[in-house]
Design a protein that fits this description.
heterodimer, A: mainly beta, B: about 110 residues, five-stranded antiparallel β-sheet, about 0% helix
Chain lengths: ~110, ~110
C-alpha cells in the first residue's frame, strides 16, 4: 500500500564511510527526486530523474551519486561521509516533470559521527 | 528557500482559525502547493491551487492566491491539536522541481 518508500529510516555512521539510501515508488510515476532537509527544516533539491535519465543535478558534492536502475527506483550513494552530510534525506516522485504534486517518502535521518 | 518566504512560527488556541502566509517571487509559477510535515514524518500534500484561481476551499482548508502581490495563504478553520506541525508552501515554476519555503511551525494550544 506504501506509495514512496525509502530505506533505511535511520542511518548512523562514522566519517569517511560510504553509505547508500534506497527509494522505491509504486505510483507509476515517471519522475523521482532526492531532497535534503537540514536542521532548520530547509528543503533543497539535490537530484531528479525522469524515466532513468538525470534531469536535475544541483550543486552537490561529487561524493553524492544517484542511480536509477528503473523508473520506479532511485538510490543515493554517498562516499567519504562528512559531518556536514548529517540531515534528513527525502525521496519523492511525481507523475510528470512539472505541474503535478510531489509525493514524499518518510525520510532517512543520516547522522555522521 | 531563497525564492519562497514564510514566517517561522504561529501559535493559536484550539478552535481558532490559523492563517499561514507565503510570498513567492516567480510570476511564472503554475501551481502552488501546501504541505504538512509532522515530527519524524515526510511531507504530506494538503492542497494546491492553480495560478488562474483566486481561492480554493477543501473542508477546513481555504487557500487564497493574490497573483499581483505574489502572496499565498492557507487558512485552517477550527484548528485542532492534531494540526500542530510544520507547514510548507511550494511553487512549481516549470523548472522541473518544486521550490519550498522555509516552513511555518504551527503550535496549537489546548
Amino acid at each position: 500500500d506504501t506509495a514512496v518508500s525509502q530505506t533505511p529510516k535511520y542511518l548512523v555512521t562514522q566519517m569517511g564511510n560510504d553509505k547508500s539510501i534506497k527509494c522505491e515508488q509504486n505510483l507509476g510515476h515517471d519522475t523521482m527526486y532526492w531532497y535534503k532537509q537540514d536542521s532548520k527544516k530547509f528543503l533543497k533539491i539535490m537530484f531528479s530523474y525522469n524515466n532513468k535519465e538525470l534531469i536535475i543535478n544541483e550543486t552537490v558534492p561529487n561524493r553524492f551519486s544517484p542511480k536509477s536502475p528503473d523508473k520506479a527506483h532511485l538510490n543515493l550513494h554517498i562516499n567519504s561521509l562528512e559531518l556536514g552530510d548529517s540531515a534528513v534525506y527525502f525521496c519523492a516522485s511525481r507523475r510528470d516533470t512539472f505541474n503535478s504534486p510531489l509525493h514524499f517518502g518518510n525520510g532517512t535521518r543520516l547522522t555522521v559521527t | 528557500g531563497e525564492d519562497v518566504e514564510q514566517s517561522l512560527f504561529l501559535s493559536v488556541r484550539e478552535g481558532d482559525s490559523s492563517v499561514i502566509n507565503c510570498t513567492y517571487t516567480d510570476s511564472s509559477s503554475t501551481y502552488l502547493y501546501w504541505y504538512k510535515q509532522e515530527p519524524g514524518a515526510g511531507l504530506q500534500l494538503l492542497t494546491y491551487i492553480f495560478s488562474n484561481m483566486d481561492m480554493k476551499q477543501d473542508q477546513r482548508l481555504t487557500v487564497l492566491l493574490n497573483k499581483k502581490d505574489k502572496h499565498l495563504s492557507l487558512r485552517i478553520a477550527d484548528t485542532q491539536t492534531g494540526d500542530s506541525a510544520i507547514y510548507f508552501c511550494a511553487e512549481d515554476t516549470g523548472r522541473r522541481a518544486l521550490t519550498f519555503g522555509s516552513g511555518t511551525r504551527l503550535q496549537v494550544q489546548p
